[in-house]
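User: I've been trying to design a sequence by hand for this structure and keep getting stuck. Would you show me what you'd pick, starting by listing the structure so we're on the same page?

Assistant: Good idea, let's start from the same input. This is the structure you sent:
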């Protein structure tokens, strides 16, 4: 990222080529619309280029991108919600009280479903998934720690994400809503 901050287009192109597809797939989990996911991913990369001198990345570029992607997805859903209610001629509802008993119960149930889905992954895929998503390690760091190639790590993450998507597909909207409430309200 230091080279990009200096205006190095080649370094920027490398980051784009290396992260764009994964970022689109990550956004697709939330948006269920490939064109919209690609559009938001392009917006994120455009922002990175425009603000390259000002961006302070605290952990890894990948984490920065995924945080930006979550924020873009939330922003998109907020705009959608606002337009939906405005089109109906009514005010958007207030945010759900995140500490209500019903919220806590449903959130615990969803968390248990997610944990069960993660626990059902093949052992190696589960371990690599947890290192990537829970410990925020890069694929290269995981590969070095486990003595695997980066491609093998990518394959295991792909397997894990496909299986989780399969198992959690019926709960996508609930998971996303509770994630938004937990993180933004």
């Amino acid at each position: 990222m230091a080279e990009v901050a200096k205006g190095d287009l080649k370094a920027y192109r490398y980051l784009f080529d290396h992260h764009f597809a994964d970022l689109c797939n990550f956004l697709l989990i939330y948006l269920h619309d490939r064109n919209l996911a690609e559009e938001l991913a392009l917006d994120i990369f455009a922002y990175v280029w425009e603000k390259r001198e000002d961006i302070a990345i605290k952990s890894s570029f990948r984490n920065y991108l995924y945080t930006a992607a979550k924020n873009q997805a939330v922003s998109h859903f907020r705009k959608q919600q606002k337009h939906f209610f405005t089109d109906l001629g009514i005010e958007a509802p207030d945010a759900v009280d995140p500490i209500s008993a019903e919220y806590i119960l449903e959130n615990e149930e969803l968390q248990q479903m997610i944990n069960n889905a993660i626990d059902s992954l093949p052992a190696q895929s589960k371990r690599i998934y947890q290192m990537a998503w829970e410990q925020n390690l890069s694929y290269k760091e995981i590969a070095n720690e486990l003595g695997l190639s980066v491609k093998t790590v990518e394959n295991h993450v792909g397997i894990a994400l496909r299986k989780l998507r399969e198992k959690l597909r019926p709960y996508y909207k609930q998971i996303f809503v509770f994630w938004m409430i937990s993180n933004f309200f």
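That's my pick for every position. To get oriented when you compare it with your attempt: The longest helix spans residues 61-87. The chain has two domains: 1-93, 96-185.
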